[in-house]
Amino acid sequence: MTKQVATILDVPFTTRGFRETVDHITERIQSGQKTHVVTANPEIVMVARENRAFRSIVEQAYVVPDGIGIVYAAKWTNQPIYERVTGVELLEAFMAKADQHQWGVYLLGAKPDVIHLAKDILSARYPNARIVGCRDGYFRPEEETQIVQEIAEAKPQLLFAALGAPRQDEWMAKYRDQLNASLMMGVGGSFDVISGKVKRAPEIWQKLHLEWFYRLASEPSRWKRQLAIPRFVLTVLKEKWSSRS
């Protein structure tokens, strides 16, 4: 039997594929279990490696391999992760589940125009899903208590937060016990993609595993963040060689 967790640089990833992940988390939602999903790519792994407090959050979360670099790292270290489980595709899959079961959904984060446009698009695409709240990510620390209370009172089955990494996961972990959400998931730039403000890489780029390069070419300002990729590769290979010796 394939083990359900693979560890990449001390981050515990689920080894489930996309469909199996959706089915497993859906079962958890229906049984009332709270689940904090972290969509982790090489950049997130390196943050967790260097930030002890964030690593503690990740260790307690349901971590999915959002990034082809994670799949390659698993291959290099002989671990059973065989496919990406991307945040934007998970969001769409759970919205489809919300549409099927009439679940409540709360959308948090992104710019004001982006979040409202994403809300309108998701409402039209999944008319039976109940979007019980919507708030942009440009709020002051003193507003957090009111936002948490609003989400708690709405009691959504699904809470999607686009506050940037690692902030989105730190925020949800901080208020985990107060938020009445069965599933809390950081979705990064997913609302930008859904709203059409940012174009996802064409399918051919995705199949060639070059989505990261497409995003860098489209947004050159991301170059500093992309430096995490070669650092991640070198660190994984260094640990592999160290374990062999």
TrEMBL record:
<dbReference type="Pfam" id="PF03808">
    <property type="entry name" value="Glyco_tran_WecG"/>
</dbReference>
<comment type="function">
    <text>Catalyzes the conversion of GlcNAc-PP-undecaprenol into ManNAc-GlcNAc-PP-undecaprenol, the first committed lipid intermediate in the de novo synthesis of teichoic acid.</text>
</comment>
<keyword id="KW-0961">Cell wall biogenesis/degradation</keyword>
<dbReference type="GO" id="GO:0019350">
    <property type="term" value="P:teichoic acid biosynthetic process"/>
</dbReference>
<keyword id="KW-0328">Glycosyltransferase</keyword>
<dbReference type="GO" id="GO:0071555">
    <property type="term" value="P:cell wall organization"/>
</dbReference>
<dbReference type="InterPro" id="IPR004629">
    <property type="entry name" value="WecG_TagA_CpsF"/>
</dbReference>
<keyword id="KW-0777">Teichoic acid biosynthesis</keyword>
<dbReference type="GO" id="GO:0047244">
    <property type="term" value="F:N-acetylglucosaminyldiphosphoundecaprenol N-acetyl-beta-D-mannosaminyltransferase activity"/>
</dbReference>
<comment type="pathway">
    <text>Cell wall biogenesis; teichoic acid biosynthesis.</text>
</comment>
<keyword id="KW-0808">Transferase</keyword>
<dbReference type="InterPro" id="IPR034714">
    <property type="entry name" value="TagA_TarA"/>
</dbReference>
<comment type="similarity">
    <text>Belongs to the glycosyltransferase 26 family. TagA/TarA subfamily.</text>
</comment>
<protein>
    <recommendedName>
        <fullName>N-acetylglucosaminyldiphosphoundecaprenol N-acetyl-beta-D-mannosaminyltransferase</fullName>
        <ecNumber>2.4.1.187</ecNumber>
    </recommendedName>
</protein>
